[in-house]
TrEMBL record:
Coiled coil: 94-121
Entry keyword set: Coiled coil
Listed name of the protein: M15 family peptidase
Organism for this UniProt entry: Paenibacillus anaericanus
Pfam families: Peptidase_M15_4
Chain ranges of the Peptidase M15C domain: 5-65
Superkingdom to which the source organism belongs: Bacteria
InterPro entries: Peptidase_M15C (IPR039561), Zn_M74/Hedgehog-like (IPR009045)
Recorded GO MF terms: peptidase activity
């Protein structure tokens, strides 16, 4: 088997494939998560739109490839040729993908806000007592830029009585 040639004929190289890995609510990757209901639904939608799923081959679950006209022949992906008018079916696929991307962008933004990834969100008032105790004990110097995880840890330390002055 000539691995070199097989690699050169990758659908990724011609822009007709992607790999994805499910992510848990904690933000951790879940390489065994392809059986989850939401992931199955996403895979089914991708297949409905014309993608092939590597999991159907039994060995490449992260892989999705778009084999509309065959390897490297999709004119919409070939920037060296003039763009042709899209067919109604292609427009439907494009619209569906654009809608999906917009919905996913909203979900990502909501998740980032929930996890306070940017550090710009204010924390819930329930954390106020624990945050103040952490500042007074010297465990933290500021209450800004704290993620949800940081706040949960601060709250646990407070609940355990470990945020007393001098208990550093």
């Amino acid at each position: 088997m000539d691995v070199h040639n097989k690699t050169l004929k990758s659908y990724h190289i011609v822009g007709q494939a992607l790999d994805f890995v499910p992510v848990l609510a904690t933000g951790a990757t879940d390489y065994n998560g392809y059986g989850a209901a939401g992931i199955k639904k996403a895979i089914a939608e991708a297949k409905r739109l014309g993608f092939e799923w590597g999991g159907d081959w039994g060995w490449d679950s992260p892989h999705l490839q778009f084999n509309y006209k065959g390897y490297g022949t999709d004119l919409k992906l070939d920037i060296t040729k003039e763009d042709e008018e899209m067919t109604a079916a292609e427009k439907d696929v494009s619209t569906a993908l654009q809608t999906t991307v917009k919905e996913q962008a909203k979900q990502i933004a909501a998740l980032e806000k929930r996890l306070n990834i940017t550090g710009k969100e204010t924390y819930a008032s329930g954390y106020a007592e624990a945050v103040e105790a952490a500042k007074k004990s010297g465990a933290i110097t500021t209450s800004s830029d704290k993620s949800k995880i940081d706040l949960n840890i601060i709250q646990m330390l407070h609940n355990l009585g470990l945020l007393k002055k001098g208990a550093k």
